[in-house]
Amino acid sequence: MNSEESWSFMFKCHEFVIIIVSNILYVYVFVSSGQDIQGTSVVANLPVLMRQNPAETLRRVLPKIREVLHVAGVEMQLTAAVSFLTVLQEESVSIHTYSHSFLHIILQNLEHRDAGVSNAWLETLLAVIEALPKETVRHEILNSLVSKAQLSQTLQSRLVSCKIMGKVANKFEAHTIKREVLPLVKSLCQDVEYEVRTCMCRQLEHVARGIGTELTKTVVLPELVELARDEGSSVRLAAFETLVNLLDMFDADDRSQTVLPLVKSFCEKSFKADESILVSLSFHLGKLCNGLYGIFTPEQHLRFLEFYKKLSTLGLQQENGHNDNQLHLQTLEQEKKYVSVRKNCAYNFPAMIVFVDPKNFHLELYSIFFCLCHDPEVSVRYTMAISFFEVAKLLNSDVYTIHKELVTLLQDESLEVLDALVGHLPEILELMTNRGENNGSESKLLSIPDLIPALTTAEQRAATSLKWRTHEKLLQKYACLPHIISSDQIYYRFLHRMLTIILTNNVLPVQKAAARTLCVYLRYNRKQEQRHEVIQKLIEQLGQGKSYWNRLRFLDTCEFIMELFSKSFFCKYFFLPVLELTHDPVANVRMKLCCLLPKVKSTLKIPTDKHLLQKLELCIRKLLCQEKDKDVLSIVKRTVLELDRMEISVDAFQKRFYENDLLDQEKERQEHLLLEMEQLEKQKQKNEGRSTNITDKIFEKKRRDSKTSSVLAKSINLSISGSSSGTSAGKEEKKSKLVRSQSFSTQVLHPKYSNIDKCPNRSSAIGYTSSVSGMGKSCMLSFCDDSFRTHSAGNSGNAAFPSSSSRNIFNSADQKNNGNKESQSRKMSM
């Protein structure tokens, strides 16, 4: 191809694209042709020309571009601004050459009649000022500002001068800015056009940073105070925002005597006369409260807190600052404004927690937190979901107080809110479980009631929506659950759901996310029986599934298994099922398997897995000999070469594989630890079951004995009442016996009754109990002994003495014998 044919053109949808080569002459011709589309293409490829041939481009192409830009359209102007900035960023030429060749073109086009073009060139110039040396900025830019900032210049020229002033202020020393920049700044702050005053007011922050705190106090602060009382609402708004951003540059006196009165004035007017500042005030309120925190009195602190609470519910209820007619006639614009205010309050909520101290959160801010999490607008709840993690970190040990709102946001009807919350869900759940009220190993779920239903509901809602990226993100974050909830809860509520998603979902990233999360659940499952069941399902439903799509997902799952588990685990359960897919009837499955074989081989250890290595080599030979698909065969050949270069690790540690072997050993150790923990739990449950059975038997025996003793007590009472119902003397005798019996049971036994052998009339005692059978007596005594022995063990004060209750039994027998003797003596006297 000769030089004349070295250019190729492609026309598509009236767009012209140039494929750059080395001949600059043809570029010059196309720029000179007068066609905008050709000139725009050359300008767009200017950075490429500068990289290939900078000298010729600067000598022949750039001057022609400079001529064309005077009459060029908007598209070429915008393209040129971007290309000039790209040349600067790529550093294709030195900064001196750039300022000499490009800077004048940029300055010429700053005052273009189109505002978009003017702003594009201004952005390029501001980026160039940062890279230019001070002297170049002084001579080429600063000197021209004096003339462009005059009232005789156009509005666009003065606006450009304001923005350049803010950028130049950081380029020079304070004394230079004071002498050459500050006079222009004061002039522009008093301009007759409110747009200029607003623009210059927003640049005062950059000017103040450049001149330091002393000049800021004497020059900038008075200008801000004056602008804060300006007749234009946009000027007042700019002054307020600049004051907030410069709080760190004012001392305590300036804050208390100047800034605080201005802020109070803004807050008072925001509800009554100047609602234009309300949105900005709500956005900066957190920064404002914390910036003025040290100078607030308790009354002022409470006033600003109440002001924040009022803003947080603005538009949801009637405010005292408005009359009823205004409330009923709210326009759509007002509604949007109120929503923006509540959204800004949600944004500032973490800052307000710092303002009131996290210890006072429940008392001062919980009601507002509740309202913002239940706000009717999605944007407000979305902002709360984004800041939820920051709130949880600030609350620290009191994080359990917001678990209900976590569940609420998880169940929110908007998937945008769920997507915002899920971003930090693992960290939030970790904070909830580790620092919650019920922190302990007994039950992590106690600290977050209704967590599992909320998580399952969120996943199901994401699955039924069309936003598969949210579903994928949710499944990825659910991999943290083994550190949050128990293994059984995961197995019954989440693990099988992941398997269902792999089998039924049609989105590949979602299936892969579910597969990886399932492998994580399997990794931390604590019951061998459940693990075997899941492995069996993976092999049967995925590896041996009827759909080739499921078999492809099986290979993806095996890849995650190799990543998360030890080599021995993969070889034990998945190595052979993977090799069986070499006979798969679908070429795509065999192709994916061949790409996976190097990783499969890396799981083998010699000599332990020598038989598996032989099977792998046999499968590869069969593929080489029997494969008919040319694409698969080419991948097989490439895989064989890669497998030949691989080195297999041995059972002993090798220096080259030391890190990998150490990591694999740690995985294997954790897997053995899970098995040991399972055995210990089984042994513990077995021991607890045995002790429970023994306890149940003892309780049943005591229950039977208590029934027997109650029956015996009733029969004894009947026999006593029968023997004493003859005469009135017998009734009196019965009452006296009962009184004496109660006195003996409540008082300490007298020494003469401490030994049953000292009973004076043993035969009468035997006669008294003769109506009771031998079995009844033994049952009653055994019951008494057991129950009283327990009682004496609980009361150590009685442990050194015989059981008082048992003594009362014999005491009552003595008592009855004495009663019989007294009745006989009374009969003898009568």
Structural account:
The chain has 830 residues and is mostly helical. It contains 43 helices and four strands. Helix 21 (349-356) packs parallel to helix 24 (378-395) and helix 26 (415-422) runs parallel beside helix 29. The longest helix has 66 residues, at 658-723. The chain starts with 8 loop residues before the first strand and ends with a helix. The relative contact order is 0.02.
- The CA-CA distance between the termini, in Å, is 157 Å
Structural class: mainly alpha
How large is the share of residues in beta strands?
under 5%
Instruction: Please list the strands of the largest sheet in the order they lie side by side.
Output: 1-2
Number of helices: 43
Mean pLDDT figure? 78
What integer value in Å does the Rg equal? 45 Å
Poorly predicted parts:
1-26, 319-323, 436-446, 706-830
Topology, number of strands:
4
Helix content: over 70%
Taking the sheet with the most strands, its summary is: 2 strands, antiparallel
Q: Please state the overall shape, judged from the principal axes of the Cα atoms.
A: flat
